[in-house]
Every structure is written in structure tokens, then in C-alpha cells.
């Protein structure tokens, strides 16, 4: 009887392990898809910006305070937000939206 119980527990442990493995693979696949879609969106946006520039059909974007773009390129989004806020005096939400828009338009994140 003990042998049957141990054998049954082995199958159950294998089934639980397999289920966890499948769930982890599905989750990682979703993350990869989201990153891929974000890169594709940024690429499409850059191409659209080039077309709009070529056609001359583009609204003038607000001036970006000195240092913001450099911080974004260096990967320091929080520092870019601080520089933007110090230069403009804008509220936190406005700063966050402006810096994130600038980063997206430049394909930086």
C-alpha cells in the first residue's frame, strides 16, 4: 500500500511541476509579445514622423528643455523628468506625460 501511495505522489508532483512550467512559459511568451509590439509601434511611429516631416504636415512640438533629451538617451528617465520639471515648473503629471511622449517619439521607451 505504501508503494502505491508513493508512486501516486510521484505522478502528482510531476503533474504539478509540468503545470508550473507551462504557466511560466505562457507568461514569458506574453512578455516577449508585449516587448515586440512596443518595438514595432515605436518603429512605425518613427516612420510616420519621417513621412509627416517630409510632407511638411506637422504641428510644431513644444521646446524641450536642455538636458532632457540627453538624460533620456542615457536611459535616465527619472532624471529627465527632474530636469524638465526644474526648467518648466510643470506639475508632476504634466512632466511625466511630456517626458514619456518625448521618449516614445524618439523610440527610447
UniProtKB/TrEMBL annotation:
Residue ranges annotated as transmembrane are 6-26
Matching InterPro entries = Ribosomal_bL12_C/ClpS-like
Listed A to Z, the keywords are: Membrane, Transmembrane, Transmembrane helix
* Keyword Transmembrane (UniProt): yes
Protein name (Swiss-Prot/TrEMBL)? Ribosomal L7/L12-like protein
What high-level taxonomic lineage is stated for the organism? Bacteria, Bacillati, Actinomycetota, Actinomycetes, Micromonosporales
